[in-house]
Design a protein that fits this description.
heterotrimer, A alpha+beta (493), B alpha/beta (390), C mainly alpha (366), B: 390 residues, 2 domains, nine-stranded mixed β-sheet, four-stranded mixed β-sheet, 33% helix, 29% strand, globular, C: 366 residues, Amino acid/polyamine transporter I, two-stranded antiparallel ribbon
Amino acid sequence: MSGRNQNHLIPLSENVEENIKRLEIELGNSDDLSIRRLKVSTKNVAILHIEGIVDEHSINENVISPIIQLHKETPSFKTENDIADKMVQIISVPSIQFILDWSELLDSILAGNTVILIEDYSKALILGTKKIQSRSITEPTTQTVIKGPKDSFTENISTNISLVRSRIQNAKLRLKTTKVGSVTKTDVGFMYIEGIADHNIVMEVMSRINKIKIDSILEANYIEEAIRDNRKTLFPLMQSSERPDIVAANLLEGKIAIIIQGTPFVLILPVLLIQFFQSPEDYYENNVFSSFLRLIRIGSFLLNMYASAIYLALITHHQGLIPTTLMVTLMAQRERVPFPVIIELLLMELAFEVLREAGVRMPRAIGPAVSIVGALILGQAAVEAGFVSAAIVIIVATSAINSFTLPNTNIVNTARGLRFLLIFSSAFIGFYGILLLTLCILVHLCSLRSFGVPYVAPFAPFRMGAQKDSLIRFPITSLNMTHSNIQKDTKTK
Amino acid sequence: MRKLVTLLFILLLIPGCSNYRELNELGLIIAMGIDVSQDIDDGYRVTFQLINPSQLSPTGAPTGIPVSNYTVEAETITEAYRRASIIIPRYNDLSHLSLVVISEELARKGTNLVFDAFERGKQAKSTFPIFIARGTSAENVLGVVEPLESNPTKSVRSTSENNQKMYGISKVMSLHEVITILSSEGKDLVLPGIKLNKNLTSKNQTDNLNNIKPSVIEVSGLALFNKDKLVTWYDGEMARNVHLVLSEIDSTSFTIPCEKKNMTLISKRMRGTIKTLLKPIPTLQVNIAINTEISEVNCNKDLTNTKVLTDIEEDLEKEITRQVQRTIQISQDTGTDVFGFGTKLSKDNPSYWKKHKKEWNTLFSKAKVAVNVKASINDSGHVTDPYEPN
Amino acid sequence: MSNERIDGYQLFCLIVLFLFGTTIFLDIGSGAKQDAWIVTLISPLAGLILFTIYFQLHKKFPTLPLTEYVRKIWGNFLGSIISYFYIIYFIYIASRVLRDIEEILINSAYFKTSITVIGICMMFTLIYTVNFGFEVFARVASICFFLIGLTILIINIMFIITELIHIENIRPILAEGWKPIVKELPLNITVPYGELITFSMILPYLNKQTKIFKTGMMAVLFAGLYFTLNILLLICVLGTDVLARSSFPALKAASFIDIAGFIQRLDSFVIILVVFLGFIKVSMFFFCAVIGMNTLFKIKSSALTTYSIGGIIFLSSIMIAPSYQKHLDEGLEIVPYMLHIPLQIVVPLLLLLTVLIKGKIKNVMN
């Protein structure tokens, strides 16, 4: 535990065996600690690493065999320093470091490095042999497109960084890494492009990350919740994406990406509300068509939020607004339904949420079956039995289908939460309630900032130039792909 | 905590204070018939027609009549509406009221401020049409279900709308138009009349549905009002001509004699404008421009000859002029300015109008009338000359 | 409130929506019958003059709200009393506007709901908004501008396609001469243009001081032109007789729309406008009252002020008048002459004169 304290340096022992013993005690005689004892001239040398997180092949080929060779070729050395210098010459691994501190040694061996201890020598050699097992790059599963790149991030931070770097081969692309989480010591890297990204936001992000005080980071959301501006909001203040092309595009707009070891989701910030309706595909297709799709998505989002509430308001408060023929049909449907319409609606909404959750948890093979059974058969049976009216099934299904058009799942959850609020306000006082809640949502949205950038930026504050790529997309040649939304009007808290 | 208290506070307010109503607690009033009450002086006998939704379910064939009528007598319309709750089992909702029928008897007595309840009321809309039940009671008119349109309210509306499109006797007059005319100066009201083409033969309503010659709603003329009192009726062509002058007609047909037989022209576009001139007594001028096509010829005429066509055009112009003059003559005789010459005069010459608006009815009756019709024939259909039976 | 960022565009939206307020639902200038549009065409000119007065005062004290510079100009004692009056005035007008909203809603769609419920719901929204500060509110207004514009556009297109517009209704022009127009003018100047006095409470807190005058002028003219268009439309649709008799002509006109028996009862659609515009107008007065209160009594945290002023506005909106007729009567007979004209025109004018004379004297002394 004293290892945490960087002010008090704990020197290594000059006795190799003593160091090994101490390491074994610290690691609780862990079985995956591998120790290889060698002799170079007269000195004892020990090579230590933890199995599984190192490149064992490379250690054998590039570390152990050259040392054995060295022992054979050069029988004597004047000092331990000479041995160390010689070793640096003959060992062929990407990086070699000398350290003096015990806690540093512990951290680096846990990170997958190999340690070489030399008798009577006060430093240890740290060899960069880290190799973390990871799956290969696959197609994205949550953010799929028809046209466009098909690769996605993996759980390995260096793979992820390489995916981004390969897209932006520019000297201005900056990467800073740090370790977060007092127990997990997870690697967290953040990338930005110098000169495009707002310097103040970069500094702000850096300081917020350094201030994080939690034990573990297992997924991007741990970081997101720790550093976002406003804790009391349903709206996502950061975007997470598993697509390298999205990250690259955002970096080019002056955003900052936070890449975290152990998760394929990369955080992008600061974020604007409108970004959640933009799909990378918008830029891979003809701009007229993709503008149309963007409007469809925004419409879907609104429908998803408002459809049930508006239906409820019409049915219970504003019957006069329904055309008479439709009214008669609706009345005929509801004639034998035993529940009040609000109960009926809430039941159906909940049933749908349950179905959605069940579909996610089910093994892949039977997932679709659950939704078919649930949606088709249950819905049909409920209508025929007269438990619910067909109109309710239509409304709930419509609002559900609409939620699938959104390219980003963060915002779907927001819509879900708000939908229920809207339903309650609508049941209470009809359109007036919906309108007032809408006003409250607007006020809330306008008060939100993502790292100092107003959340509803190109609309409020209104900026004409940014409209070229907000609700609709102009041709790429006319888009001055910069960062106008970011740099102006930032107010860092 | 503070938010919780606020929320609780809101929830406490919910019961009782809101407009919340379930659909299956509603009784939808779609039509009202207003007659003169037999028992109450200056009272009304009001018939409410309610939808019976279970008969109109999209699945399953209807087994009965889709509407029910409830009749109540009271001093005012609103009183009747409230009193109707003694027989109507559901909350009677006026927001879908889409037809009001007033009996001729009441119209002759004077509608007075019958419409005030509808205009003042917050619930009913103001776009529903108003009809006069000609020679019968509103209750009777609303009491017929016919096979093609099993909903009497819809039947009245659609028959009338259809006639407006095809011939032009009837015109749907919505409440707000009626009130605008009644409250404006220099224009009198006309309202479309409806009646049953024959009385019901059987007491059992559903028998009418199975009858091949059912008794149905018939559009029948236009009622002329002097202020709020019905004075006379226009029938057939005369009613059509009113709308022709007012330019409120979609399409119509004219039949003119031709070599002892007849031919019919149907109109495609027409425009009627009115003018008032003061020289020095008011002169009323009506200009009608009309485009027609020949639709049926029962005599032999060389329709390829443009001279003949010009002759037909002249005949048509004469015929329309004669008809319109007669129509205006009747209007002048009864002193009801249904064409709005007075309104026109008040716009064109406000100072004269201000002086003479009290005596307008007599001025109108004595005014000279000039009718100019410009008719043209655009085409003669798929053939030129009629076939000759040999 | 010290560092609010509001750009020219947001200020424009705010002024326009504030002027629209509840005014576009009421029959402005209908006493002049078919010439009402001339009233609405002339009155913005007076509005420009008033705005100039307010702006000149603001230029003399660019960092102080009205309630503060009153004390600078007329001394602490008299100034404090006048600013106290202004705060009460803002609260009173806020509750009057709130009452208007409540009445319109009760009349259009909520005939069975109690006025209290309508008021409480609106007040919660208002307090929520005011707590976020003026900057957020200005942004909301700029978004509302689009929504409201869209709604107005849709309704007006409906009027055109349903052929409800009878142009002959506006004739004859000036049949009664200029007399009825002149008679209608003062009322139409005080509401809404005189109410721009609220902006003299807000302007010191804006960061860009340069474009205010130009933006304000444009907004006033824009609103004036729209009022003219609006009243022309109402006259054309309703005719002068019905217009004069309706409590809410805009609702009445919208209720005439009937597209194929399918789209009907658009008066319920108009409540979108009522809620949004009313919200913005009451908020403005609410903000002014809060700012005034906080500066006059040197209160640091404004949350308590907001809650208490909100409560007062809500309660007085209900108790202000026993019936809507009475409420209207007060609005037409008493308020303009007892409150509007003194506080909107006389006091600012006197203030400006005092400042100018003081400046002259100083010049002479030097």
